Amino acid sequence: MANFNGVFTALLTPFTADGKVNEKALERLIERNIKAGVNGFYCNGSTAEVFMMTNDQRKALMQTIADINKGRVTLIAHVGAVSTDECVDLAKCANDMGYDAVSAVAPFYYKFSYDEIVAHYNAIAAATPLKCIVYNIPAFSGVNFSAQQLGDLIAGDNFLGLKNTALDCFLIETVKSHHPDKVVYNGYDEMFLSGLAAGCDGGIGSTYNLMAEKYVEIQKLFNEGKMKEALAVQHVCNEIITSLCKVGVMAGEKAVLNLLGYDFGECRKPYKSCDKEAYALLEREVMPYIIAD
Ligand code: MN9
């Protein structure tokens, strides 16, 4: 039985100059994160830039990650898209490839009704034996759920729980206390400790790619009741996140990995990449806190 608690890195995707996945660099990142103590990976999420990729590319990326992981840690496949049929197709692939669960952002752009969104999620959850994690990220999807709606959405047996990327600890506490058997993940890394305090079972985040060991440490200290020590580590993470946000979070994360000697390339367009000044800022403000390997 896969372990769904703890720290899950939302994997970045390294691209070569001609837009292909750089498998060597991805392998190195996966090894770095396993060594740092993550419980698993959240694959093909927003951080992986899947909304700038074709479905064939998304499937190939899922397979590459599964091949590198070789069953070592828990794998969650994000299969979200606007079209229900596409999500179902990607979920079936994830199941065939041996993933442990699927997840999906709410269908976006068209302003679907809540009933339409429920039917969308039920189709994904029914498509395979894998359980589904609802990905709530209102700032990006434009879809706003109440705590009651999220709770209703994840209540069924074929739902594992919720990934919540929203600055609302009240909502986290409400959903988790009403559904204690479900797994709730914190989504904004800058509030990981706050999310744990509100009832989260772990976190899924993009800045984990660079510093997973810090989040592993926060959760360990939290479990030991050492809140002051945990907050001190969270503070270091937040200083780093503040700097990353100045240059663009994903572009900044890739630039940090490039500075560590990974061949991580740049984000897909329309994202712009880091210029010289951005690299200098990261060298100054972020690199002193990042562990080389
Ligand atoms: O869900 C990530 N969300 C987005 C996870 O990228 C939209 C987070 O890890 C953020 O990147 C991070 C920085 O704000 O918390």
Structural key phrases:
about 290 residues, 12 helices, about 50% helix, globular, binds 2-(acetylamino)-2-deoxy-D-mannose
Characterise the protein shown here:
- The protein is α/β, with parallel strands linked by helices and about 290 residues long.
- It has 12 helices and 8 strands.
- It has helices at about 25-35, 55-70, 85-95, 115-125, 140, 145-155, 170-180, 190-195, 210-225, 225-245, 250-260, 275-285; strands spanning about 5-10, 40-45, 75-80, 100-105, 130-135, 160-165, 185, 200-205.
- Helix 1 crosses helix 2, helix 2 (about 55-70) packs parallel to helix 3 (about 85-95) and helix 6 (about 145-155) runs parallel beside helix 7 (about 170-180).
- The model has no long low-confidence stretch (mean pLDDT about 100).
Poorly predicted parts: none
Largest sheet: 8 strands, parallel, barrel
What pattern of helices and strands is seen along the backbone? EHEHEHEHEHHEHEHEHHHH
What portion of the residues fall into strands of 2 or more residues?
Answer: 5-15%
Question: How many DSSP helices?
Answer: 12
Radius of gyration: 18 Å
Terminal Cα separation, in Å? 31 Å
